[in-house]
C-alpha cells in the first residue's frame, strides 16, 4: 500500500515558533519557526518514507465557522508578526522545493486536510497526518494515523484507532467530535453544553454513543448550543478542491533547490546534512 503524509503546516509552525528560541538570520529576521518546521518535516519523511507529500495551510481570512459563530476563536490574541512572516516564507519554501501546498478561502487547514485524507482513504492509500493539534484525532481510522507533536518539535506520538481509545478512555475517533461538542473547547471558544466537562462527556458517550442519541433521549437541554458546537468542532471532509495526486509525488522534490534555500537562510547544519545525500530523495 502506498503512503501519504499530510502536514498541518500552520499548527506545526505555531508549535515550533513557541517551542524554539527566536533564531535570527544575518538580516535580523526570525527563522526559528521555519527551522523547527524543517526539523520535523525531514524527521517524518525519514521515518515514514511517504510516496506523496502535501502541506495544508489556513487561508488568512475568516472561515465559515466565524460566519456561523462570531465568537469563534475571538478570545485568541493576535500572533506576533514574526510568526505570520514565517508562515508566508514556509509556504514559498515548500513550493520552491516542489512540495504540494493547498489552502482555500473560507476554510481552515484542518478542513482541507480532512478532505484530502478522505480522498486518499478511497484510493486505498495509507495516510499519516502530521500536526500539533489533537483535534486531528477525529480523522483517525484503519487507513489514517495521526503523528501529533507532544513537546516542541522533537517528541511526537503516532496515533492509530487503538491509541486514540487508550487516550480517551474507550472513545473511538469518530466520537471525538461529539466529545468536543459536549465539553466545549476554550482554545477555539467552542461553547459546549453547560455543566459538562471531559469526564462527564466521556461517561455519556461510552454509554449512549453519540450526541444525537443523547438528544433523542432528552438528556441534552441545550440542543441548539450542542449542535452549533458540533458544527464548529467537526473537521470538513467534503471541501471542493483540486488535487492531482501525481503532482504530490515525492519524485518531484528538488534537492538542489532545498540546499540553495537552506544556504540562503543560514541553516548550516541542515545544509551539511543534505549535501551528503547522493540520492535525489530526501533520505
Furnish the topology, listing elements before pairings.
Blueprint: E1 3-8, H1 9-19, H2 32-48, E2 52-56, H3 64-68, H4 81-96, E3 100-102, H5 109-122, E4 126-131, E5 144-151, E6 155-159, H6 161-167, H7 176-183, H8 198-208, H9 211-216, H10 223-233, H11 255-265, H12 268-275
Parallel strand pairs: 1-2, 1-4, 2-3, 4-5
Antiparallel strand pairs: 5-6
Helix pairs in contact: 1-2, 7-8, 7-10, 11-12
What is the level 1 CATH name of the largest domain?
A: Alpha Beta
CATH-defined superfamily of the largest domain: 5'-nuclease
Arithmetic mean pLDDT: 92
Report the major sheet.
6 strands, mixed
Which range does the strand content fall in? 5-15%
The assigned CATH architecture of the largest domain is: 3-Layer(aba) Sandwich
H/E element order: EHHEHHEHEEEHHHHHHH
CATH fold-level label of the largest domain: Rossmann fold
Overall tally of structural domains: 2
How far apart the termini lie comes to 20 Å
Backbone structural class: alpha/beta
- Overall geometry comes to globular
Cα Rg = 20 Å
Task: List the total number of helices.
Answer: 12
Low-confidence residue ranges: 278-283
- Give the strand order of the largest sheet, numbering strands 1, 2, ... along the chain: 3-2-1-4-5-6
* Oligomeric state, counting identical vs distinct chains: single chain
Number of strands: 6
Roughly how much helix do the residues carry, as a percent range?
40-55%
